[in-house]
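lol so apparently i was supposed to do this last week
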Amino acid sequence: MSSFRDMPWTESDSEHFIEVGAIHTPSRSEIGDVILDLIPAEADEPFQVVELGVGSGWLSEAILNRFQRARVIALDGSPAMLKESGRRLDRFPGRVELRQFRLEDADWISGLPSELRCVVSCLAVHHLDGPAKHRLYHDVYQRLGIPGAVIIADLVAPRSKRERRILAKQWNDEVRRQSEAFTGSLEVYQAFVDDHSNWYEHPDPADMPSTIQEHIEWLEAAGFSTPNVFWMRAGHAIYGGFKEDSSR
Ligand SMILES: C[S@@+](CC[C@H](N)C(=O)[O-])C[C@H]1O[C@@H](n2cnc3c(N)ncnc32)[C@H](O)[C@@H]1O
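anyway here it is w/ S-adenosylmethionine bound
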């Protein structure tokens, strides 16, 4: 497996996020529940899902638990993340395929099966710039069957300075609450503050969140019907769109 060269996201980012991801992500289990509810499938149907930026594998694990006949292709650029998700998803033999990819490259999508039911992602798509996100939604639409869906949880960009300030505070408050609730201490929260991890307060050029309005516009232009935002907390939104039989 090749290393994770030439990318702003490093292997030490992966190691760190495996440790603190559940605390840094506002209400991660709620995000998982909403994504699962949006997948257009019955619990006992066989179908194919792709997860972009699988990380430690928590979302794929939730999908495989809820949908007992679903199969997941789980993609990530980081060897450390693929190792971690491989460990976590080991108990679903024959239902998971891990692949290394580079989100920015054009070739990985043509290697996916056609007629996918769903493409999901949590906190990975903001590593692409606007035109690349637009292109991604177009390419994903071509790969989906009917019914199909793209469902993404990600950091979204504010439209004003006031909104940026509010989202910054909300995210700090969430990390503080979860740090205390999950670990009994404020240590993870303090490190979040000290490391300047709150993108709204300390924008990092490697992270390129877009506004909700841009996502909806790009999804619509790609062909998705009724694209919308389904959940939002502390700057983290779940948005997506559906590919449906237009006669229904
Ligand atoms: C913030 S983590 C989120 C991980 C997981 N989805 C979660 O919610 O816990 C971002 C993930 O995207 C992957 N990633 C970041 N940039 C990438 C790129 N350019 N190509 C492929 N994967 C990338 C990282 O390795 C990491 O697993």
